[in-house]
Amino acid sequence: MTNTTKLSKTAYTLYNRPDYFRQLADEISRTVKGDRVAVMTMPIEPREPLVLTLMQELCSAAKRGVRVIITVDAISFMITKRHEFKMGPLWFHGADSAVNFSMDAGLSKLKLTPPFRDMYDQLESVRKAGGMYRITNAPTHAFTLPVAGRSHIKLAVVNNTIKLGGCNLEDSIDLDIMASFEHPALADYLFDSADRIAQSGYVRDVLGETDQHFQPSTPANIANPFDLFIDAGVPKQSRILKEALKFIDDSQKWLFFTCQYFPGGIVGKHLAQAVARGVQVHVVFSHPSTHGYEQPGHYVYNTLQKLCLPESLFAHQLPKGLPTLHAKLLANEQGAMLGSHNYTTQGVRLGTAEIALQVHDPAFSRQIVDFINDMLPVSHRFEFEKITSVRL
Fold this sequence. Notes:
The protein has helices spanning 17-29, 49-63, 89-93, 116-128, 184-200, 203-207, 239-250, 265-276, 295-306, 345-350, 362-373, and strands spanning 2-7, 10-15, 36-41, 67-73, 132-136, 155-158, 161-165, 178-182, 212-214, 226-231, 254-259, 280-285, 316-317, 329-332, 336-339, 354-359. By secondary structure, it is an alpha+beta fold. It folds into two domains: 2-192, Endonuclease Chain A (Endonuclease, Chain A); 209-386, Endonuclease Chain A (Endonuclease, Chain A). The chain is globular and about 60 Å long.
């Protein structure tokens, strides 16, 4: 499922997760010597057939002389959340046991069992083909909280084409979205950032303590079509969350919000304020049962949030049995914001590196809402014709 719109000088194409894998593999297959490819993901699941195909294309590209970089967050080697529950080698040993997890045999010195062996072998295949990989944000000691200090950034750069959104290199059944567009200056910036993160191994070594804001240069009389924000991963600091709260507060007629977890806390308060001023707020989020070993906590959290927030915010929890809604989208009558951030405070407190794209165009906003609507049950879709005027 793909969809394309054109605004200003930038055309955006939208992909669900399986089509993102297929399109990215196809674009990589057409690269030639001297081209460049960078892919960043949080987890990797090489047992997913479409991910395996993508990894094979990365290897083939590297053999052709394409500059290939892939970064995978260390959580892949700390804990599994899909298929089975296992603690991984980096949780038991920490980074000190293998020093450098990208270019040497550090991890291979540890006893690797499936699925960690599969992940490592696939990454090593990229290196052996002539590419580069890095396991980023590795813990410095054993028994570290797996979800703390993560790189949650998901992106791909193929020459001047950029893909941003929520798609990890894992199961293709999740309901997810990536936006693809061409922008040479931003592609240079993101490829250079991925390269430096791969060289360093830690996002904060590259970004420091400062969250990043990329705004394209345009003539003074033309509005910028987008802003890009990157959280450096400093605990209790998030430029993206601040922009998301402002986005909610600026909504005048309607707000469509899709997320993996119910957005309570400070985000819930801003949503409640929007409801109170007459904005039609439509929040769609995953059923707690999709969250594996974390589901008891989400059941409790959602129940507590219902005690202090409008009932209407909970009306579109997805039914039990559907795949995880992994798409992270805010859309209103002015534009849309998507990326890797879950728009919750939990990840912010733990210091999570994130990325988000904000497109300032009503046509794009409607396009992306329609795109996600097609993934949802009819009862959970946003209906533009039911938008009412804001109360004054």
